[in-house]
Amino acid sequence: MQSAIIKQQLQNWLDAVTAGQVPGVLALYAQDGVLVPTLSSHIRRTPAELEDYFEHFLAQSPEAQLLDWEGRQLGAIAVASGHYRFNMRQQNPPQAVDARFTFVWRQQSADQWLILEHHSSLNPDS
């Protein structure tokens, strides 16, 4: 996975979140994917738990924006870490939430990578 492909995987996730469609976001995660979410202290370990989190998170109509990132490939595993912003459009006034992230993808086939691990937390200075 080259940097351009890692960036595309990040953009796929950001676009799915911004579109606000839970099934589209969930399709990016492996069945055994784990999420340590931005706005909850509960680690999500199952598809049902992921779905529950994203139903609540996406209800806030976040617009996701990539701020900066670094990525690397380690065989069939790829990792990216950085910062993103969520503009929560359902809040009045809309609120910007800045967070840091780490994604770990596992290659499923020649052209499919799924999220195996995803950690997201508020920036300490937010």
What would your notes on this structure say?
- It is a single chain.
- By secondary structure, the protein is of the alpha+beta class.
- It has one domain (3-121): Nuclear Transport Factor 2, Chain: A (Roll), CATH 3.10.450.
- It has 3 helices and 5 strands, in the order H-H-E-H-E-E-E-E.
- A 5-stranded mixed beta sheet has the order 1-5-4-3-2, with helices on one face.
- The model has no long low-confidence stretch (mean pLDDT 93).
Which helices and strands, and how do they pair?
Blueprint: H1 3-19, H2 22-26, E1 29-36, H3 47-58, E2 62-74, E3 77-88, E4 95-109, E5 112-122
Parallel strand pairs: 1-5
Antiparallel strand pairs: 2-3, 3-4, 4-5
Key features of this structure:
single chain; 126 residues; alpha+beta; Nuclear Transport Factor 2, Chain: A; five-stranded mixed sheet; 3 helices; 47% strand; globular
Distance between the termini: 32 Å
Report helical residue fraction: 25-40%
Oligomer: single chain
Number of helices: 3
Across the major sheet, the strand order is 1-5-4-3-2
Q: How many strands, what sense, and barrel or not for the largest sheet?
A: 5 strands, mixed
The CATH topology comes to: Nuclear Transport Factor 2, Chain: A
Provide the succession of SSEs: HHEHEEEE
Share in β-strands: over 45%
As for the number of domains, it is 1
Task: Supply the CATH architecture.
Answer: Roll
- Mean of pLDDT: 93
